Sequence to fold (325 residues):
Amino acid sequence: MFPTERPRRLRRSAPLRRLVAETDLLPRHLVAPLFVAEGRAEPRPIESLPGHLQHTRDSLRREVAELASRGVGGVILFGVPAVKDPFGTGAYADDGIVQEALRDVVAEVGDELVVMADLCLDEYTDHGHCGVVRPDGVVDNDATLDLYGRAAVAQARAGAAVVAPSGMMDGQVGAIRRALDDEGFTETAILAYSAKYASGLYGPFREAVGVEIAGGGDRKTYQQDWRNRREARREVRLDLDEGADMVMVKPAMTYLDVLSDLRSLVDVPLCAYHVSGEYSMIKAAAERGWIDGDAVAREQLGALRRAGADFILTYFAGEIAGGAS
Ligand code: PBG
Fold:
């Protein structure tokens, strides 16, 4: 007996496959994470993130213009300050590196793409934690909220269209929304890193921004435990109640179940962060000739779209948009 149902009929040619494709991956779906270092004369390659640099203000401006010309949906800026201190002052000073870079970039690309700022303290604190640390070593949730509010206002004032709190403090979205509204920044949107897991995949990022957690510590008292799936729904509900405009799952490939759950839970834009370790694993294997890096990158980012992500933060943004437009 020959089969009557023949799914292969719709796979036999590229035009047929394109016609019936259920999802797609376009430059507009991608947001490029970019690093900008204070007081550096030349951009410096980041060894663990091949193809990426710690930018100078100048090279950053050029990079963003290039990404805009490729149709990339947005950029998200991370700062590497010249000096760190216990309170992460550089995160909320008006002359902090990200605030300076935001002004440059907004002047350069205006409305061509969405300019976002990561909002956290870890790049700016000498102990490497995402918040203020008490003498007993505990990261002080509520003392940190005030500083996040100040960072949000500084970023909005510098021109960020979207601020993206990534520190996983309880109540951070509400504190930031209030601080922004109090200063008249009612139109600045919040992309909440809502379901952010304590992950081994952030290693290359920490090298990129020069963050080392004091005493060989970790972020397990504030970032989520990878054993938990339901908890992500709770985190997202809280962030939406506090005024998040968009929510995120991070990392990406190891949390497709979470992404899919959240897709059916929320109506707001949902995004996934394909993080540094995910990028570097693909690059490293491709370098050895073990996989086709471009194909694997598209397959992974495509899987995130299929699982429900509206857009994706990815270090592949420039590459993929360069080849796809
Ligand atoms: C925290 C932050 C981190 C990343 C983005 N924001 C690191 C961390 O939580 O330790 C990681 C991103 C990546 O690995 O690509 N400010």
Remarks:
- The radius of gyration is 20 Å.
- The longest helix spans residues 141-157.
- The chain has a mean pLDDT of 96.
